Amino acid sequence: MCGRSCFMSEKVRCSWAGNSSIYVDYHDNEWGRPVHDDVKLFEMLVLEGMQAGLTWITVLKKREAFREAFDGFDPKLVALYDAAKVQELMTNQKIIRNRLKINAAVNNAKRFLDIVEKYGSFDTFIWQYVNYKPVTGNWTKNEDILPTTPVSDKISNDLKKLCFKFVGSTIIYAFMQATGMVNDHLTKCFTYKELTSPTQLAKTQNQTV
Predict the structure, then answer these.
(1) Most buried by CB count within 10 Å: which residue of 27, 48, 111, 119?
(2) Would you give per-residue pLDDT tens digits along the chain (209 residues)?
(3) Catalytic one of 26, 30, 129, 194
């Protein structure tokens, strides 16, 4: 009888997914898939900032705790956090307790809402940088994927001018990969083939129009 490990091995994936169930689930169901929900976009912006200097799996393992601690990553609520709330978060052993990163999340929630007020949604603002459609890579091995691009440089610089914190180009490019602004799945990966299928491309186009 074929169990979960057998099922996982049936599909060809990007090598970074490995055999960890949490990584495989993230790879198969989230990474590279276009995100247009503002709360989810804010969540990924915060989590990518939290990852700085750490491994992504460390963040994924703490993700549910982060969601609980940060009120589901609702930017309207996070923007109201005061010094007492930040101190409370600093005592939460289930999340990454880095004061600079936590303060950045609160600051970024405020800046995020500024963008929403101006553009109607953060989704409208951020997806304009890729002309409202995913940039599809053509990679055969992970080593060829660069950590930054001119577009991530541009977004990073623009966000910094808007007073966002922890939005360096590497962090932003990881955010772009995570939210499907770019599809950096390897060409042999089953997810790459799914995301570049005519049906999926048409669905994506409808979401961004």
Answers:
(1) 48
(2) 444 444 445 789 999 999 899 999 999 999 999 999 999 999 999 999 999 999 999 999 999 999 999 999 999 999 999 999 999 999 999 999 999 999 999 999 999 999 999 999 999 999 999 999 999 999 999 999 999 999 999 999 999 999 999 999 999 999 999 999 999 999 999 999 999 987 665 666 555 54
(3) 26
- Catalytic residue from among 30, 56, 129, 194: 56
Is 43 annotated in the active site?
A: no
* 16 counts as catalytic: no
* 56 flagged as catalytic: yes
- Rounded Cα distance between 21 and 197, Å, is 26
Which domains are assigned to the chain?
35-208 (1.10.340.30)
- In the block, which residue shows the tokens 């932003």? 172
- Amino acid identity at 61: K
Helix (H) or strand (E) holding 157: helix 150-161
